[in-house]
Amino acid sequence: MKPLFTVHEGEFLVGDHINRRLGRKYDVWVPTKDSGVDLLVTRKRRSGRAVGLQVKFSRSFSIPEELARHLIATSWFTLDPKKIRNSQADLWVFVIMTLKHQQHFVVIPKRELQKRPPRNTGGKWNLYLWVYDNQVCYQVRELNKEQKFDTMHRSVRNRQHDFSEWLENWKLIDQCSKGIR
Question: What CATH number did the domain enclosing 125 receive?
């Protein structure tokens, strides 16, 4: 018998995180139809609207030795900008599993993510998110070696590369359920 749906590792980790850390306020649901929303989050008191999450998962890759002291997670996501534009999800959650089995989540509104892809992607966008021990997160794909070093000190000039605001930003679920975002 073919299963109706499967939950991938990233979806499981997001659902588990919400249940363990935010579970007093929210319930997590798995849609039975693939509509571009991986998880639905509702308030336990049923006030507010459901929040749709699109979840992407990446394991960490080996960390460049010269950055190893401060860099705690690396990732690689391949995205289709057209799918981002057409997404029904309110929030996109990028799950990064480190080599030490720690999890980091970048929770970003779809509208904000739509502004981020570079113009000439050739149809695909390779998103490399790096997380540092000082709670900053940058997209480093188009950066040269010197610019990657600068990310450790928050000195990247292009705001499009800075994902720090969205790192572990679970407050967005509350804002979306109230219709703020």
Answer: 3.40.1350
The predicted-structure confidence for 14-29, as pLDDT tens digits, reads as follows 999 999 988 788 999 9
Question: What domain count does the chain have?
Answer: 1
- Read off the tokens for 90: 């309110």
pLDDT tens for 53-65 read: 999 999 988 877 7
Q: How many helices (H) and strands (E) does the chain have?
A: 5, 10
Strand partners, 57: 95
Q: Give tens-digit pLDDT for 66-101.
A: 777 788 999 999 999 999 999 999 999 999 998 888
Phi and psi torsions of 173, nearest 5°: -60, -45
pTM of the entire predicted model? 0.90
- 36 by DSSP, 3-state: which? coil
Q: How far from 73 is each of 37, 77, 85, 101, 115, CA to CA, in Å?
A: 26, 13, 27, 10, 24
Per the domain annotation, does 163 fall within a domain? yes
Two tokens, residue 68? 């190893």
Distance CA 81, CA 119 (A): 10
